[in-house]
What we know:
By secondary structure, the chain is α/β, with parallel strands linked by helices. The chain has nine helices and twelve strands. The protein has helices spanning 40-58, 97-105, 114-125, 186-190, 192-202, 219-227, 231-255, 272-280, 304-311, and strands at residues 4-10, 14-21, 26-33, 65-72, 76-77, 82-83, 109-113, 134-139, 143-149, 152-153, 259-263, 294-297. The strands form three sheets. The protein has a five-stranded mixed β-sheet with strand order 3-2-1-4-7, sandwiched between helices. Strands 10-9-8-11-12 form a five-stranded mixed β-sheet, sandwiched between helices. Strand 9 (143-149) and strand 10 (152-153) form a beta hairpin. The longest helix has 25 residues, at 231-255. The two termini are 17 Å apart.
Amino acid sequence: MKKYIVGVDVGGTxxxxxxxxxKGVLKxxxxxxxxxxxxxxxSIQQVYSSIETVIRESKINKKDILGIGIGAPGPLDPARGxxxxxxxxxxxxxxxxxxxxxxxxxxxxKLENDANAAGMAEVLxxxxxxxxxxLYVTISTGxxxxxxxxxxxxxxxNGMAGEGGHITxxxxxxxxxxxxxxxxxxxxxxxxxxxxRRFLKKNVPxxxxxxxxxxxxxxxxxxxxxxxxxxxxxxxxxxxxxxxGIWLGGMISILDPEIIVIGGGVSNMKGIFFKNIRETxxxxxxxxxxKKTKVVRAKLRGDVGILGAASIMx
Length: 314
């Protein structure tokens, strides 16, 4: 008889919840709005509703559910199951989410940082299958990562390791003010929105961009323009990929991973993006094997949040 896991991906705008088997095959999923602006009580109820709905719609006997994994934005404490104070979840301050969900559904529950969870899913079912020492990187609205050592997530002393997006790569860049309060973080310089912002500061969108306000231009528009031949768009994406390569060179110096898996929306870019990253890394790492470290695109795409949450119950 098959056994199943519920995976809950809690985000600032939506909650994606699904049921998978132990091979990471997604049976069903539901997506509900987080309603974060309405406060923590409403958002928690949305979490409950998403779990109840996916179980009901999947027509699975609750006895066959092994547990519930939850991926959420940090900072959080995975050991105690507490969401500490994520900036995009209004009122979520020291929320004992694991205990609350466990009490509600009478099932084992685990909580993990969403980037860590996505990284573990790639190890179990994605691009890093067969590897034990893995650096997973997500590049989209922000820049995050998961550190997998000997097949296990490295949490550090306080459960808050892996905030690599807030490593400084250019401390005197006036345009690099980060939401964390630091200056020159890789997130502030090379995330999707940061790259678009730097492009618009120096350039006027040309004929290859859609006709819409500058404030509505996204990384998708930037990549499309670059592929269509826009030189300025090509230049800024080249700069972005080199900044990421500089950062990853340092990460290799510290961690010496077998493989780096890059996920998130920005990882969908083609052409020079990955080529530049691979060429830049060895120039900025003392590791003699940096050039041979595999850098690959994540395999698990739109459902990685759900699969990541489910993976932590494995």
